[in-house]
Design brief:
single chain, 279 residues, alpha/beta, two-stranded parallel ribbon, 39% helix, 27% strand, globular
Length: 279
């Protein structure tokens, strides 16, 4: 029997996810050091989870009407970030995919009434929110099969939560140890100035989110989440967070929560949190 063996809230902002920051420790500001070190630790958590594949729901893999699940058997290319070509450019990536898992997930989503597209196209572009956390920190060896999942603008939080539940069921009914990455910020009221953090009230709410997540009452967290993401203007409306919480609720497993870091980026709050299924 398979399992949702690890769940990871991760960071993709360009100031943290460059090859220089990841491999050389060179940062534009020491304000970024805690999250960089937290991401390094999260990479060790991913290795400890002994995953067979990892699904990444990135706030920068954006679709309008359907949720796109990328089942391309091999993700290979060179990434320059559209938003930050001066920071992220010419990054080569070459990850195996998992068509069978992606296809099963897409089929199940359609059967449950959600608009879904299964991609199988070597030209389907990956975004920096998917590629850079993996390349820089979570799987530097580029060996772990990767299933990118889009954030859909037409999907509300309930739909995203339902996708998380579907992913956990597909994982449980299979034979693999599956990981899930929610790639995005928490509070997200952006301003110019990369070293700037959230407003104090929003930072306090971010910390309450982490406290509830670590507490393990995921149903309580889900009931609290809509008001939170509205107040802090969470990245992509908190869709990635809703999918993560849905997966945790459906899994029914006990998880050890490791809060690795929290830090700023252009007015946003960014948590690095790993949840590993208890043995």
């Amino acid at each position: 029997m398979g399992s949702l063996a690890g769940v990871f809230l991760s960071v993709h902002t360009p100031r943290y996810c460059t090859l220089e920051a990841a491999f050389e420790g060179r940062l534009a500001s020491e304000a970024f050091r805690p999250v960089r070190e937290g991401l390094v630790a999260q990479g060790r958590d991913v290795a400890e989870a002994r995953l067979d594949l990892i699904a990444v729901n990135s706030c920068h893999l954006i679709t309008t009407f359907p949720t796109v699940i990328d089942g391309t058997p091999r993700h290979q290319g060179v990434l320059t970030a559209q938003e930050a070509p001066e920071i992220i450019h010419g990054v080569r990536y070459d990850y195996p995919g998992d068509y069978a898992f992606a296809s099963t997930l897409a089929t199940r989503g359609k059967a449950e009434g959600r608009q879904t597209v299964l991609a199988n196209d070597v030209h389907y572009p990956l975004d920096y929110g998917t590629v850079m956390p993996m390349v820089c920190y979570l799987d530097r060896a580029q060996r772990l099969p990767l299933v990118p999942i889009s954030v859909c603008l037409a999907a509300n939080l309930d739909e995203c939560f339902a996708w998380g539940r579907t992913l956990a069921r597909v994982a449980r009914e299979g034979s693999q140890r599956v990981g899930f990455v929610a790639s995005g910020s928490v509070s997200h009221k952006l301003v110019r100035g990369p070293e700037k953090g959230p407003l104090p009230a929003d930072e306090a709410l971010d910390h309450e989110f982490a406290r509830l997540l670590a507490g393990g009452d995921y149903e309580k967290l889900w009931s609290w989440l809509p008001g939170y993401v509205t107040s802090v203007e969470a990245e992509m409306g908190g869709r990635h967070l809703a999918m993560m919480v849905g997966a945790l609720v459906e899994s029914g497993a006990r998880y050890e929560t490791r809060v690795r870091a929290y830090g700023p980026s252009s007015g946003s709050g960014n948590y690095v949190i790993s949840l590993l299924a208890a043995a």
